[in-house]
Amino acid sequence: MAPDALYPLGGYPGNDDDGKVMQKKLDRKKIGVDMLNGAKWLKGHAMSNGKLAATGFCFGGGVVNMLAVKLGSDLSAGAPYYGKVATQVHFAENDKRINKGRDGYAAALKANNVTHEIHTYPGTRHGFHNNSTKRYNEEQAKIAWSRTMAWFKKHTS
Description:
Helix content is 45%, strand content 18%. By secondary structure, the protein is of the alpha/beta class. Strands 1-2-3-4 form a four-stranded parallel beta sheet, sandwiched between helices. The longest helix is centred in the last third of the chain and has 19 residues, at 138-156. It is globular, with a radius of gyration of 15 Å.
């Protein structure tokens, strides 16, 4: 499932600049409820193996962290880009705003005995995985995605 939080406003517009403007018009609490309900629905779906993993980019990375907190052990793995589940975190090397919280995030994961991996991608900026921006870094995005898929397989198989 790949929910689009911007769906109520017509869906992702294809670029981050317009997307940011649209995000400001949304009720973040409602987005959280929608994402949580979607995750619960997916986990309980007849075709589900009962294990749930989540990934998200930029704002979606925060959604993954929220799901980890709200779902606890009902979320088998998470991979936020930029909790109490097996967490794989992806940081852009040159992302001052997000990286300010990196050390505290890593310390909290360790202090709470959360299984985790943290990766930083050289020469990248925030949004390096988004191929609709100039910040896209194909080489590092492929490495990150390969790690994400391996992480999900390990924790949901």
